[in-house]
Amino acid sequence: MTIQEHKYTVDDFDDFVLLPENVDRLFEYIGGEIFEVPSNPFISKIGQRIAGEIYIYLKQHDIGHLTGEAGGYIVSGERYAPDVAFISYEKQADLAKSGYNPNPPDLAVEVVSSDSVAENKKLTIKLSNYLAAGTVVWIVRPEDKYIEIHRPTKPVRTVHENDTLNGGDVLPNLSIKLSDIFK
């Protein structure tokens, strides 16, 4: 949901999210516009299944931080709240305790809630900025039961429901059966 149809500065956004009426709400700053991040139990469930698999991996390989849909990041000057994200200790030892994390994640997972023109426009902008910042992005399409893997300077790879997703260079040896995510 767009808050208002006009362009904002980053400072406008930072002031807006600190207003008392917005303290318990989640927003993204994409392409100069402010969007409230909608709540959707189905999308949250899919995101948490992926987060659960990454959490189990991180218990055995303590290499970084895992955040959920309430964890925001500054990415190419914008403010994003990926459904799931990972940032290595090497990149950032401690996470920000308020506001949006100053460094982009190493991995961002965006679970697509609709195939609307507006959603695809936001996703295209976010994807471009994530990749420019060096972030690997998994775009999860639960209705179609596949995940697109976007890596900087590499071709897009698609993993389908009966395939296994691996963590690549970001999460070495991570293996997720997509049938467990989309069941």
Question: How are the SSEs placed, and which strands pair?
Answer:
Blueprint: H1 10-17, E1 27-30, E2 33-36, H2 41-60, E3 64-67, E4 73-75, E5 78-80, E6 84-88, E7 107-111, H3 117-132, E8 136-141, E9 146-150, E10 157-160, E11 164-166, E12 175-177, H4 178-181
Parallel strand pairs: 7-8
Antiparallel strand pairs: 1-2, 3-6, 4-5, 6-7, 8-9, 9-10, 11-12
Overview of this protein structure:
Helix content is 26%, strand content 27%. It has helices at 10-17, 41-60, 117-132, 178-181; strands spanning 27-30, 33-36, 64-67, 73-75, 78-80, 84-88, 107-111, 136-141, 146-150, 157-160, 164-166, 175-177. The model has no long low-confidence stretch (mean pLDDT 93).
Low-pLDDT runs of 5+ residues are none
Average residue-wise pLDDT: 93
**CATH third-level topology:** tt1808, chain A
Task: Give the strand tally.
Answer: 12
| Biggest sheet: strand arrangement | 3-6-7-8-9-10
Question: Brief overview, please?
Answer:
This protein has 183 residues and is of the alpha+beta class.
What characteristics describe this protein?
single chain; 183 residues; alpha+beta; tt1808, chain A; 6-stranded mixed beta sheet; two-stranded antiparallel ribbon; 4 helices; 12 strands; globular
